[in-house]
Design a protein that fits this description.
- There is one protein chain.
- By secondary structure, this protein is of the alpha+beta class.
- The protein is built from four helices and four strands; from the N terminus they run E-E-E-H-E-H-H-H.
- A four-stranded antiparallel beta sheet has the order 3-2-1-4.
- Helix 1 packs across helix 2.
Amino acid sequence: MKYIYPAVFTEENPGYSVSFPDIENCFTCGDDLEQALMMANDALSLMLTDMEDRKLDIPKPSRVNDIKVGDNEFTTLIQCDTEQYRRTLKNRAIKKTLTIPEWLNESATAAGLNFSQVLQEALKAKLNIA
């Protein structure tokens, strides 16, 4: 599921802390703005994935203009995709045994192909997965 929530970035010395007013106990930080943005996406993805898994009510996001911020703060929207996040979490390699013709094995080995990589690419193409 795709979500967009407002996040409050607070300038620290050094870096930024990030909070999500609509998501209870969802906080993160970063050494710089770029890292804080990436960490915000990860924190939001983790919290919303957990809420979905536990079948908790997911709150409606506030409007950015309705959120009051201090002098050293700003608000921006953070987008996340919980399905993509789950795929990322399940990206560990597993062993799979397969059978191919001997001549194909010899040709692929001679060409220096990585069998695991070729199989992954072929499966993703067949399943229309980016």
